[in-house]
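Weekend entry, working from home. Most of the wet-lab plans are on hold until the incubator is repaired, so I used the time to fold the two sequences that have been sitting in the queue since the last round of cloning. Logging both here for the record. First:
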Amino acid sequence: MKLGVPKETASGERRVAMVPDVVQRLARKGVEVVVEAGAGAGARIPDELYTEAGATIGSAWEADVVVKVAPPSQEEIGRLKQGSVFIGFLQPLTNPELADALDGRGVTAFAMESIPRISRAQSMDALSSQANVGGYKAVLIAADHFGRYFPMLMTAAGTVPPAKVLVLGAGVAGLQAIATAKRLGAAVQGFDVRSVVKEQIESLGAKFVKLDVNFDAETEGGYARQLTDEEQEQQRAAIADVIAKVDIVITTAQVPGRRAPLLVTADAVQRMAPGSVIVDMAGDSGGNCELTQAGETVVERDVTIISPLDLPSQMPESSSMMYARNIQALVELMVDNEGKLTLDWDDEVIAKACVAGKQEPAPAATQEATA
């Protein structure tokens, strides 16, 4: 099987879907990798490292399986050959037209967002791997904009108190943000509508914020459900009191396929001390802060509100390495021992990740007759 790795063309995208180490791993499975010239430049991976790992430099779009990070453009979909397989982020819940276009091209497409959250699929979970990078980078951005130290310092000139950090949302990104802020020496608190994450927050050395509300919002699969209007109002009022006492807020709360929940109101921002910082990681889905402007940095009453949209791309080497490992785990599930593409539609991961061109398994009676 031939696997193609085209160059990313989306604005600001510096990641690449394959790294030399994974090229070597796939070669041992009988998979031939073709990389478009310059595909790894944004992640500081020259073509020479790919060729040394066993890949060839050439036309990636003619491969049996094409892997990308960002969703393909209409022009790129037109370059895919009929009957091929495409793997990447495809925004299936918010952009179903993309899956329709791939299906119309005769392409079987797998969305990395649709990988089921089951134990054996953890190595394929690209949402988690990229959120991990995002949570780390968000804290570094906050520290860069904050005008004071993060850790407590005792000096001859006096004692500097630690920065007080609040992380809203304790998914993968939030937990990484908590851990990073703790490593930098901040006094950290974490909040999530799912009370089950209390132990995870406390295991990282942070304090779990218990709001005076009477609901829990965890759904099957570990995500947070959409709160009712009344529940959201209760939550925002309670969170505002906590926000008024901290220096930095990192927001990470998102609900798949829906607008991000509003957690930080304009009134809550006004109650923060001058010089405080908010980093809103949910800007691309509407933002957790009422004053967020997606992709922009704004200052309101001396509070800096930052909404980066490309956090993993700001650390392209690490994020590309992890994403390539996610791709490797999925591709290895799709090939047999000789490297031949073999899609098992009875496999839960294959079936649920497919968003276009899905082929149903043959009925049991037909299978028995064939046998």
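Second, folded right after the first finished:
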Amino acid sequence: MDWRQLVHYALLGSSDLEQYAILLVRVSIGLFFAVSGANKLFVAGGTKPVYETLVKAKVPFPQQTAYFVSGVEFVCGSLVTVGFLSSPASLVLLIDMIVAILTEALSTLPKNLSPLSWLDDFLYLPEVLYVLFFIWLICSGPGKFSVDYWLAGKLLR
């Protein structure tokens, strides 16, 4: 590797590895949501914390909403994992995380923080990181190692 290649890699990265990065992030975040949703749906008492959060946030129909949100996480997380309808599934999970931030996560931040400290704590929230990952997945697409990529190749010939 000569110095120009090294500078290019240091400043611009390597697009040769991009598909593997997309795969790693897509499968990891998809599995996280699929397993989390499955635990809420299929483990006794799994929806109880979700229900309690929804009641505290005064969300209408908290019991039904708890099952709905858990189902969304399970189904959309599974879709993102395999890369099938991954952009719509990522959009749904993005909305789910924005709602989670607005109904629960913001209330956990300490009061009377300076703007910079508040931003620091806000960006530390895992839900914010999930939002950023979903935005990236929507913009980048599911990558070459996905059902969507294979399907697009078959349908768009």
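Plan for Monday: verify the second prediction. The radius of gyration is 19 Å.
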